[in-house]
Amino acid sequence: MREVISRTFSSFGVPGFRLLWSADVALNWAEFMEIIILSWFVLEQTESPLILGIFAALRFTGTLAAPFFGVVVDRFGRRLIFLVSRASFVVLSSTILVLSFMSMLNIFAVLLLAACVGFSRTMDNIVRQSVLPDVVGESRLSNGVALSRTGRDVTQIIGPVCGGILMEVAGIGLSYILVVLLYSLSLLLVFLVKGLPGAIVSSYSTVSSSVLKNLFEGFRYVKSERLLVGLLVVAFVVNLTAFPLNQTLLAVSAKDVMRVGAYELGWLVGAYSFGSLLGSLLVGSLPSLGSAGKIMFIGSVFWHIGIIAMAFMEWFYPSIPLLIVVGCAQSFSMVTMAMMILRYTTPEMRGRILGLRQLAVYGLPVGLLLSGYVAEDFGVFVALLGNGLLGIVLLLLSLWFWPVMVSRQRFME
Fold first, then answer.
1. What is the dihedral of CA 61, 338, 199, 189, to 10 degrees?
2. Check: CATH 1.20.1250.20 for 8-191+214-407?
3. How far is residue 3's CA from residue 7's CA, in Å, rounded to a whole number?
4. Consecutive H or E run containing 43
5. CA atoms within 13 A on the CB side of 99
6. CA 366, CA 238: separation in Å to the nearest integer?
7. pLDDT tens-digit profile, the chain (413 residues)
8. For residues 115 and 61, is the Cβ–Cβ distance under 8 A?
9. 3-state helix, strand, coil in the chain (%, to 5)
């Protein structure tokens, strides 16, 4: 038992990883509070699932520029870009705080700032994943990925609950004081991490070569690796059809079907995140993942089955255990996918490939807009059922075209 626990948390033995993990916890805690607070603000102001979908989609605007961001990360120094991305969260959240205290916060301002946050999130995701192998080392990479996901899952439990409670008790202005403080703490902790790499110079990429050339090198690299192509396709599918559940549709279901408030919505999202935490811990504790592709694919399918089940759920309390199971399936899918992408990408190409991975996240804003439209015109039941069924069909098609995702067995040995 002691050996299992030691293996599960081995990356915490690295000081830099402890700082990085803590910085991510502070960032994600603030982000998940922000999602609940602003989602409820948008719903109360507009009573429109479509506008809520637009708000959520704008938070992923940066995905279109993700391949370019990946080149920037590889060329111009990861430490500097990391600090700039974290500082931008402080600036944007402070803007919302000031506007709310001045009674000037409105839907237009929220949508505009959500679009700005989208660029910050995309850049931050790319650089954070890029530096992880440098911080923990190759031997602890898989464990580091799992523990990083675990930290996000913990805050995805705490953040929504805190956001829901503060929104109902204190209102948006006072709630954002904590959001700004958490973003500031995240910036400070990243500043304290030592040994973050600068620009990567290699046979693939030199500082003197053009950004456009670097970008095309990333596309050629992915094209030559059928496994990476398949993983990116699956990433697009789950963003298109699965992530709209906890991003928007769960809020609509809570308000229109279960007839509960922001406090209960926080607990629903928290239950989903608790399941994700359990899944991440389980994956991180395994000594090897010889069938990582199979685990990823099965997790993705069960994730969508859970979404279909949520379409028939009309009661608050029975939704809690179901969402725990759905969240666990999500982690089995996403953690193993992240492990495989990092494992099968060379260090000098890591920023560009992770940029393309973030480009796959563009499926989420598309899915959010479609889900919001369907939920508004046909009801949240149709939106959930349609997403679940469409996702399963697309996953089966991706397996048909890229069977290498489940046939490659050598992993983490």
1. 80
2. yes
3. 6
4. helix 15-46
5. 15
6. 12
7. 566 566 667 778 888 889 999 999 999 999 989 988 898 888 888 888 888 888 888 887 777 776 777 667 766 667 888 899 999 999 999 999 999 999 888 999 999 999 999 888 888 888 888 788 778 776 677 677 778 877 887 887 788 778 888 888 888 888 899 999 999 999 999 999 887 765 554 444 444 445 556 566 666 776 777 888 889 899 999 999 999 998 889 988 988 899 888 778 878 988 898 898 888 888 777 655 567 788 899 999 999 999 999 999 989 999 999 999 999 999 899 888 888 887 777 766 766 777 777 777 778 888 988 998 899 889 999 999 999 999 999 999 999 998 888 875 444 44
8. yes
9. 85, 0, 15
CB 45 within 8 A of CB 107: yes
> How many Cβ atoms from other residues are within 10 Å of residue 413's Cβ?
8
Residue among 184, 233, 220, 167 at smallest CA distance from 34: 167
Give helix then strand counts, H and E, for the chain: 19, 0
Task: List all residues 6 or more positions away from 409 whose beta carbon is below 8 Å from its beta carbon.
Answer: 290, 291
Instruction: Give the global pTM.
Output: 0.70
Residue 353 in tokens: 């490939």
Radius of gyration of the chain from Cα atoms? Answer: 20
In angstroms, rounded to a whole number, what is the distance separating the alpha carbons of residues 335 and 30? 22
Query: Token pair for residue 73?
Result: 């990360």
**Side chain identity at residue 27, one-letter code:** L
Using CA atoms, how far apart are residues 253 and 139, in angstroms rounded to an integer?
43
What is the DSSP secondary-structure string of 242-300?
A: TTHIIIIIHHHIIIIIS---HHHHHHHHHHHHHHHHHHHHHHHH-S--TTHHHHHHHHH
Whole-Å CA distances, 357 to 68, 219, 340 = 12, 11, 12
Distance linking the first and last C-alpha atoms of the chain:
21
Label residue 43 left, alpha or beta by phi (over 0 means left) and psi (-120 to 50 means alpha): alpha
Side-chain half-sphere CA neighbours of 183 within 13 A? 27
